[in-house]
Amino acid sequence: MTLRDDSVWGTMDLDLANILKVIGPAASIIFAAWIFMGFLQARYDSAIDRYRDLIDRYRTSELSGSRKANMRDQIICYKQRCELMGRANILGLISAILLILTLIAGEMALALPGIPVLKFASAGFALLGFFLVIAATIVVILEGRITHRQIYSELLDVPDLAQGIGEEAGDIGDPKRGSRSPPR
Q1: Residues 136, 40 contacting (CB under 8 angstroms)
Q2: What is the 3-state secondary structure (H, E, C) of the chain?
Q3: Three-state secondary-structure class, residue 174
Q4: Spatial separation of the C-alpha atoms in residues 178 and 172, rounded to whole Å
């Protein structure tokens, strides 16, 4: 089906078969973006739930000195993780929007071949969208480093487990702990 109308849009060539051929592979990119967003949101929701639980336990429990210090460290780490995952979610959402705009601009470029700016807009949206997926992934990597510290500090409350990793039980923030503690 081809429609030509010089009066409204200049030359409009609507080749539905060609548009549908282009939409299929491009739509898979958008589905992938939404799957990535689901991954980000699940991590964020999990961290927020755990953060709230730790704060509640910190407020309502009688804790030993080192356990209280390590739980305080965990809460601060979860706060950082939640902030990072919030940023990753925003980057992921903007990326998804840009990839949807890529699809829309690409379809318009096929329908309106006389408007070359649509091709450049589509390419630009795609590049920015993919760049933001990479940026969001880097934020998730940074968040993963914080998780490493949390896993490490959990062991320090139980003497047998701390000894199992070659450490003494106690406060992760203790300056006497030395360089074996993981960085923040």
Answers
A1: yes
A2: CCCCCCCCCCCCCCCHHHHHHHHHHHHHHHHHHHHHHHHHHHHHHHHHHHHHHHHHHHHHCCCCHHHHHHHHHHHHHHHHHHHHHHHHHHHHHHHHHHHHHHHHHHHHHHHCCCCCHHHHHHHHHHHHHHHHHHHHHHHHHHHHHHHHHHHHHHHCCCHHHHHHCCCCCCCCCCHHHCCCCCCC
A3: coil
A4: 10
> Would you give the DSSP letter of residue 162?
H
pLDDT mean across residues, the chain = 82
Query: Considering the entire predicted model, what is its pTM?
Result: 0.73
Locus of tokens 């006497």: 176
The sign one gets for the Cα dihedral 66, 166, 174, 54 is negative
Q: Contact at 8 Å (CB) between 54 and 71?
A: yes
| pLDDT tens sequence across 121-169 | 999 999 999 999 999 999 999 998 888 877 877 787 777 888 888 888 7
In angstroms, the CA 184 to CA 166 distance is 19
